[in-house]
Amino acid sequence: MTEFWESSFVENQMMWGFEPSDSAILTKDFFLEKGVKDLLIPGIGYGRNAKVFIDNGINVTGIEISKTAIELARQSGLDFPIFHGSVTDMPFDQKQYDGIFCYALLHLLNHRDREKFIRDCYHQLKPNGYMVFTTISKDAPMYGKGIQLDKDYFQIREGVKMFFYDSDSIRQEFGDYGLLEISEIVEPHKNKENKPPFTFLMIKCQKQ
Q1: How are beta strands 198-206 and 179-187 bridged, if at all?
Q2: What are the residues whose beta carbons fall under 8 Å from the beta carbon of 198, sequence distance 6 or more?
Q3: Contacts 24+ apart (CB under 8 A), 167-175
Q4: Among residues 78, 16, 28, which one has the least CA distance to residue 53?
Q5: What pTM was estimated for this model as a whole?
């Protein structure tokens, strides 16, 4: 899996560009409203979604499996702590955070790893802390494409497996973890206007 992420990273970088996602911008506003000061971003990539938080006075810690991504983040002048490793190996520290933001990662995990990841994120929240996940929706045009591996779980192409969420599966997986809100967000390709947008679901939770 690590080799796949390294080999495909440049391609993904070009796909997403360097502007923050709309999800990150909305989450930044939400976190500022809630007074979030310390933020964990699992799957931080090369940091395109980190700067919008840092620029607004939020301390960021990242987790990233790709050494290439971490190197690019450093080359861009981002010097916050980044743990090198897989989110399936969380926790990397014993710190509890005010907030956790995870963009376009959860759906790439299998059922067992999703369960552990959600639980680990929840455990690393301070009491009353918030976590926000953006994940692929069953309304995305790629739903049902490729090889079906399980219910709503498909191998889209070699090395890429995705679980597609709806409100029912979100309630099932997040029901014990302070689920507050589910909303749809359509994420454009900001550097490739001719590519169709992604249909995502934003999941907000608060630690009770």
Answers
A1: antiparallel
A2: 104, 136, 140, 186, 187
A3: 167/201, 170/201, 170/203, 173/114, 173/115, 173/118, 174/118, 174/203, 174/205
A4: 28
A5: 0.90
- Element at 171 (helix H, strand E): helix 167-174
Rounded Cα distance, 87 and 204, in Å? 19
> Given the structure tokens 């309630």, which residue do they identify?
171
Count of other CB atoms within 10 angstroms of residue 166: 15
Burial class for 188, CB neighbours closer than 10 Å (0-12, 13-18, 19+): middle
Burial zone of 107 (CB within 10 Å; 0-12 exposed, 13-18 middle, 19+ buried): buried
Whether residue 5 has pLDDT greater than 50: no
31 membership: H or E segment, kind and range: helix 22-34
Cβ–Cβ under 8 Å, residues 88 and 121: no
**Cα 196 to the chain's mean position, in Å?**
20
**Mean residue pLDDT across the chain:** 90
Q: How far apart are CA 42 and CA 144, in angstroms?
A: 27
Sign of torsion, CA 57 43 8 17? negative
Tell me which of 203 and 159 has the higher pLDDT: 203
